[in-house]
Structures are given as C-alpha cells and as structure tokens.
Amino acid sequence: MDLLLKGGWVVTAERVEQADVAIKGEKIAAVGADLTAEGAVVRDVTGKYIMPGAIDAHVHYQMPIGELMTADDWFTGTRLAACGGVTTVIDYAEPASPAESLTASLNKRLDEAREQACVDYGLHQVVLPGQEEDEAELKAVVDKGVTSFKVFTTYAQRLSLAAIGRLLKIARRLGALVTVHCEDHEIVTAKREELIAAGRTDPAYHALSRPATAEVKAIQDVIALAGEAGAPVYIVHVSTMGGAEAIAAARSKGQQVYGETCPHYLLLTGDKYAGPDSRLYLMCPPLRTAADNESLWRHLAAGALQVVATDHCSYSREQKAAGTAFYNTPSGVPGTETLLPLLYSFGVRNGWLTLPQLVRVLSTNPARLFGLYPRKGSLRPGSDADVVIFDPRRQITLTAANLHSAAGYTVFEGFNLLGYPEATYLRGRLIYDHGRFLGQAGQGRFIPGRV
Ligand code: URP
Ligand code: ZN
Ligand code: ZN
C-alpha cells in the first residue's frame, strides 16, 4: 500500500461512512474501518470528507473564437481544476469548419492537451452541419473513446432540427449520447434585431436578447426529436424553470432525457447586467431570475437534473472590455475551480442536496453518462484514486486573487463559503495541498469513454 487516508468520512454516491481509504499505485485498494498498511504514507484526515474527484463535464479551455482565444488554456484550466478538487474535465473537439473531419479535429485537440493537461480529461465531439450524415466518421470518433456529440440549435454552428433528428438516430445505433445547447435561433435572432432597431445594444440588454422562451422552446423541440428517435439526449447548461420542467416532464414519461445546470444559473440573477460590470457576467444562455434559481435547485434535488458543470469559458477583463454591445462581447465565464465548494456551501449546507447527492451530481452521474464509470466517479477498489479531501470547517471568502484562472476575476467574488477542498489526489498523486498546486503539465491523461 502506498497511501492511507485515515480517520475521515468517506462520501460516495450511496452513503457517508467513517472509513479509511487505502491507495496502491494509481488505484483505490480498499475502503474500510481501521485499515492498516505497512510502509504506506499515512495522512490523518480526521473530520474531513473523502470524496471522489469532481468531474467538470462542460469546459472550454484554449478555445479559439474568431480572433480571440480564451484566457485559460489546457495548462491553466486544468491547474485551476486541480485546485478546486476537479480531477477530470470534459472539453470539446470542434472542427474549424464543416470541411474539417471529425477525426482530424479530435486528433488535433488530443495533441493540444497531451503535454499540457494537469488533470485527466475526456472530450465531447462537436458536430457541424452536414457532418451528422457521416456515420462512419461518427463511429470512428466513438471508437476513439469520445462517446458524446455536441450540437447547437443557435450560433453559426447550429444544426437544423431535421439534422439533429438524424444525428440522434445514428447516436442511438452507436450507443453515443447527443448533448445540445438549446436556444431557439429564430427567437434569439428576432429579439436581437428588435433591440438593435431600438438602439438598445448595450451589454446590459444581454438577457433580453436571449429570453427564457428561446431556451424552453429549443429544449421542448429537442426532447420531441429524441422521443421520435428513441434516443437519449443531454441538455447542457439549463438556465430556466421552464427548461427544467420540460426535462422533468419527459423523464416522468420514461424518456431518457438528462439535464445539466451550472453554478451561475443556481446562484446569480440577471440583475448583474444592470451593474457596471455587465460584460463580466455575459454568458449564453444569460442569467435569469431568483425563481429560476430556486426551480433549478428543486429539480436538481429531485433528480430531474443530473449534473452540475461549469461551462468554464474564460475571458480576461480586457477581452471582455473590448465588447461594445451585447452581440459582440465575448461570451462565457470562468467556473471550474469554484464548482465543488459552491455546491457544498450553497447546495449541501443550505439543505438542497445531501452529501451523496453532491457526489452524484459532480462526479458519479457525469462519469456514468460519459462512459467513464467506474474508473472515475467512484471510490470502489479498482477505481482510479482520484480523491478530494474536503474540509467542511474551512471558512473562505471567494476572491479572484486567491483563485487560479487567467481571467483574473470570478463572478462569485465576495461569496462567503464554509467548506473548501484541502487536497486533491490524481490517480494517487498529490496534486494540490492546502492552497498549493503540486501537479505538472502533461500528467493528465485522456480517458476514453466506453459506450
Ligand atoms: O457563453 C458561453 N456559454 N460560452 C461558451 C460556449 C457555450 O455556448 O457553451
Ligand atoms: Zn452552450
Ligand atoms: Zn459551453
């Protein structure tokens, strides 16, 4: 045995129990009471929680968009992940245009990550218009360990509903999961033109330009398509009560619909757009209302939403400041590092989630949905020894100065937390301890998903 975590509370998707965790090499060797291990390094974790490393299933590190590049690259993105107790991230492989093959874009993305990643990673494959027809290419991607496709109902990358229907049918045959950014393009376009015609172009109008109805309609359309195709579907970054209700209704009829939300949709509201820093809070879909926040917590607690991920897409203050209007301000916010502590303080401590539910929405559920379980998302013997030691008594006020994103700001500035990651182990190696990053670029591995 190499490492023995002694005296803590082990939290899994099923239970909380006082137990020790023994680690041999890269794997969990045993979980049980009063373990002994000769020659092992013993870490006293009395009073701490021992949890499977969190999985941020929706990140955009080193993402080019037009002339811009996100502030966090593969190195800084995965470094800040380690500092937040996140041991696996799932990013995207996106072809530069429909002319670039899926496999070419995937290989390029894997090459970028290989030397830089500090935690383990998987990828979702973005499918552009026309590419949904090429079953052989889609299969080649799945065979390489990318078991989820990503499509958009808006943006330049959007697929028509007919095309999404085609992809859903092929994905069902391949055993893959289609994930969808849901905002109805016609509604968004009409609103945008209306606001521009009225001269209301300031970033403060961002939420008005992408109304809740756009998300709800797109989610309803996509759920209907998935039902017709008999395929599972996963809706990313659900921001509205109506969207969560549509997912819950479909699930109650037995449809395999999964929903992800993000900390910013649970904890922030659109009044941020009225302030002087509106650009810093600009992401798609936009922040909504307190009623939406509460509904998303309720649906998460009830299991109608299964995953909380961050959609980490960071731009610096300078990059954001270059935006002159809601339609040309870089869209996205940083989030991976604060995912686990925010969900603990505001989810568990506020009574929305139990500790096992916390582990489910941050680790076990994304691992299962994206083909990584039980290697990831579990503390069973044989699973990767990705472990977070979490101190439930550590009090901290979030501030960008103590976080590690190259964005240089957090939308959660000033949030008071009780509970914070103390240490992170990646496959048995200590990569973060008491505020210090101890990992290395290139130690993160691509973890192929299995269908
Ligand atoms: O504004 C956001 N969310 N940017 C990242 C891309 C996306 O739509 O997820
Ligand atoms: Zn999106
Ligand atoms: Zn995204």
Low-confidence blocks of residues: none
Shape: globular
Bound molecules: N-(aminocarbonyl)-beta-alanine, zinc ion
CATH topology label of the largest domain:
TIM Barrel
CATH architecture of the largest domain: Alpha-Beta Barrel
DSSP helix fraction = 25-40%
What's the domain count? 2
| Count of beta strands | 21
Work out the radius of gyration.
21 Å
CATH superfamily of the largest domain: Metal-dependent hydrolases
Q: Helical stretch count?
A: 13
Strand content: 15-25%
* Class by alpha and beta content: alpha/beta
Distance between the termini: 32 Å
CATH C-level category of the largest domain: Alpha Beta
Give the spatial strand order of the biggest sheet: 8-11-12-13-14-15-16-17
Q: How is the biggest beta sheet arranged?
A: 8 strands, parallel
Q: Could you report the average pLDDT, rounded to the nearest whole number?
A: 98
Task: Describe this structure as you would to a colleague.
- With 451 residues, this protein is of the alpha/beta class.
- The protein contains 13 helices and 21 strands.
- The protein has two domains: 3-51 and 380-437, Roll (Urease, subunit C, domain 1); 54-369, Alpha-Beta Barrel (TIM Barrel).
- The chain has helices at residues 74-83, 102-114, 135-143, 161-174, 185-197, 206-209, 212-229, 241-252, 263-267, 290-301, 317-321, 339-348, 355-369, and strands at residues 3-6, 9-11, 16-18, 20-24, 27-32, 41-44, 49-52, 54-56, 64-65, 68-69, 86-93, 120-126, 148-152, 177-181, 233-235, 257-261, 307-308, 387-397, 416-426, 429-433, 436-437.
- Helix 4 packs across helix 7 (212-229), helix 7 (212-229) packs parallel to helix 8 (241-252) and helix 8 packs parallel to helix 10.
- The relative contact order is 0.18.
- Residues 58, 60, 311, 313 line the site of one zinc ion.
